[in-house]
Amino acid sequence: MAGIFEQLGYLYNPNPNTSDVVLLNTCAIRENAENRIWGVLGNLKEPKRNNKEMIIGICGCMPQEEHVVDRLLEKYREIDLVFGTHNIYRLPEFLYEITTKRNKVVEVLSFEGAIIENLPKVRANEHKAWINIMYGCDEFCTYCIVPYTRGKERSRHKDDIISEVKCLVQRGYKEITLLGQNVNAYGKDLGIDYTFGDLLRDLDATGIARIHFTTSHPRDLDLKTIIAMGECKSVMPNLHLPVQSGDNEVLKRMNRKYTHEEYVEKINLLRKYIPDISITTDIIVAFPGETEEQFVHTLELVEEVGFEGAFTFIYSPREGTPAATYPNPLTEEEKHERLNRLVEKTNEGYLKGHQRFLGRVVKVLVDGPSKNNPNLMTGYSEHRKVVNFIPANANVGDIVNVRITEAKTWFMNGEQIDE
Ligand code: SAH
Ligand code: SF4
């Protein structure tokens, strides 16, 4: 959307209060993401009163929820534009309609439609790029709103992805992150004999230095992909593999379609083919009905796998999903207590994941000077660890060799050893 605005001749203004157009791209994954947006909308009432020409729009996942659109139209009269996740390409027409006729535009589609290629893009970075390879999700985990807000799984054609990456390589990009809710399902909807493992190999052949991807679903992560990860030099030895819970009954009620044991088997397979791999995860605590014993199974799994990082969440009911109707007798205090115990454990994993690199030389893609100390440079290692280091001759976008001298919970320190 930033690319569309740029092509239309708009300039970016970081201050919403003085902007001609304010467009809120929203997330619906948890209640607090939505609450933030309601707060921002409230704060925009005043600037809109002072500037009647201001256009306020809201798009993304929240408008894909019917109850959100009802509330928007009822309580936030100053909103001019509401659209969802399936018609982003129509943004120029929406803006034209509003600026020329001052009409309110509300267009939320409940069907996905085709993938629109070649929309203009603005990239936030000149050496790292994010690339969507598929949209939507067919998994229907019982807590999750994504299948409703993003629609069915649709993969981009491999040739479009490969040519986009080739173009980035030519422009000097070093790292790509392939994006999808379940990248391991890539290609299944296209009805061709070409899956995520094949895509990794073809992208490795483009000459890009580093490939990373997110997110993987443990059930769909197949051997072919794991072998490709091990064999392709550019695929970074790091995997984010959300487990959500370590208890089989909870996993079943979440509709995750794997067990604790099957998850651990996948981890063992990953470690067989990529011995040095670092593994991170997502975990939800206090899923409706989760008992203390079931929660302890999650703590045990964290210990057993040795995660080197985790995003941890308290379950948040999402209207319209099956789990929102399940009884959840835990108090807020009990939920937070579980989260704190889990975070304590996952933080140990962060630290251990850094300590294992002490004395080793790692390759760091340089992001720029460190925020806290401008004499240091900072970047990510191949295992996706933050590394602050004393530079020798490091420029932004270079991949340099750094010897690790200190390991902290959130980052590592080191010194560049290149001549
Ligand atoms: N497609 C990815 C991630 C989707 S959302 C996957 O399947 O792994 C990112 C994370 O948000 C999820 O992994 C889950 O841990 C968390 N999440 C999703 N819905 C949630 C909810 N209703 N409450 C709390 N956390 C949730
Ligand atoms: Fe949500 Fe991920 Fe499950 Fe899809 S696979 S329903 S995006 S948690």
Describe it:
It is a single chain. It contains 12 helices and 17 strands. Strands 13-14-15-17-16 form a 5-stranded mixed beta barrel. A 4-stranded parallel β-sheet has the order 1-2-3-4, sandwiched between helices. The chain has a 3-stranded parallel β-sheet with strand order 5-8-9, with helices on one face. It starts with a helix and ends with a strand. The chain has helices at residues 2-7, 31-50, 66-75, 91-101, 146-150, 158-170, 196-204, 223-231, 248-253, 260-273, 292-305, 332-355; strands at 21-26, 55-60, 81-83, 105-107, 128-132, 134-135, 154-155, 175-179, 210-214, 238-240, 278-285, 310-314, 361-369, 377-381, 386-390, 399-407, 412-416. Helix 3 (66-75) links the parallel strand 2 (55-60) and strand 3 (81-83). The chain has 419 residues and is α/β, with parallel strands linked by helices. Bound molecules: S-adenosyl-L-homocysteine and iron/sulfur cluster (SF4). S-adenosyl-L-homocysteine is lined by residues 29-30, 143-144, 146, 181-182, 215, 217, 242, 244, 282, 284, 313, 315-316, 318.
